Amino acid sequence: MANSVVKLANRLQDVLDSTRIADGLAPLLLRLYLAPIFMQAGWNKLSHFEDTAAWFGNPDWGLGLPMPEVMAGLAAGTELVGGMLLIVGFAVRWISIPLMITMLVAAFAVHWENGWLAIADGGSWLANERVMEAQDRLTAAKSILQEYGNYNWLTGRGSVVILNNGIEFAITYFVMLFSLFFTGAGRLFSLDHWVAKCFRESE
C-alpha cells in the first residue's frame, strides 16, 4: 500500500515537472504586467518634469531629496527604460535592481505614513486610523452625490471610493520585481534567453 502511494505521488510529481517546459510563461506575464505600469509612471514624470522635480526637492510638501532634478530624471528614466526592457525581456535581472529601489523609496518615503491599503476600506483588518476616518468622508461624499448628482450614472462603472495611497501597490510591485531578479526574464520568451544561448554556443 505504502509503495503504491509513493509511486502515485512520483507520477503526479512527474506530471507537474513536465509543465516546466513552459516555465518562461510566468516571468513573461510578470514582465508584461509591470511594464506598462512603469512606462506610464516614467512618462508622467517626464511630461511634468518641473512639477516632479519640485515635489522631489520640497521638504514641506514633497520628499525633500537632494539634487531633485537629477533624482527626478533618474526615477523617470529608470521607470520608462525599465518598462521597455521588461517588455522585450532584456537585462531583466539588472534593471530589476533600480526598479526595486524605486519601489522601496516610493513605499517608505511616500506611502508609508498611510499604512498598507491603497484604497480606504474600513472593513479590512489592515485598516488604520486614517482609513477609519476616511469612512465618514466617504459617507458624506455618497450622501452629497445621491442628493445633488445622478448617483446611479456616477456609480455605473464602480462604487465611489477614497484613495488611501498606502504601500500596497509599491510593495506588490517590489515583490514581483524581486521574483524576476531571481528567475530572470524566463526561457524562450525573452531576449535574455536568446542572447545567453548565443554566447554559450559560441564558447
Structure explained in plain terms:
The protein has 203 residues and is mainly α. The protein contains nine helices and no strands. α2 (25-47) crosses α8 and α4 crosses α5. The longest helix is centred in the first third of the chain and has 23 residues, at 25-47. The N and C termini lie far apart (51 Å). The model has no long low-confidence stretch (mean pLDDT 92).
Topology:
Elements: H1 2-18, H2 25-47, H3 49-57, H4 68-88, H5 92-111, H6 129-148, H7 151-154, H8 168-183, H9 191-201
What tags apply to this protein structure?
203 residues, 2 domains, 9 helices, single chain, mainly alpha
Unreliable stretches covering 5 or more consecutive residues: none
- Derived from helix and strand composition plus strand pairing, the structural class reads mainly alpha
Q: Please give the radius of gyration in angstroms.
A: 23 Å
The beta-strand count equals 0
Number of domains: 2
| Ends apart, CA distance between termini | 51 Å
Helix and strand succession?
Answer: HHHHHHHHH
Shape: extended
Helix content: 55-70%
Q: Major β-sheet, in short? A: none
In round numbers, the mean pLDDT is 92
Total of helices: 9
Beta-strand residue percentage: under 5%
Quick rundown:
With 203 residues, the protein is an all-alpha fold. It has helices spanning 2-18, 25-47, 49-57, 68-88, 92-111, 129-148, 151-154, 168-183, 191-201. The longest helix is centred in the first third of the chain and has 23 residues, at 25-47.
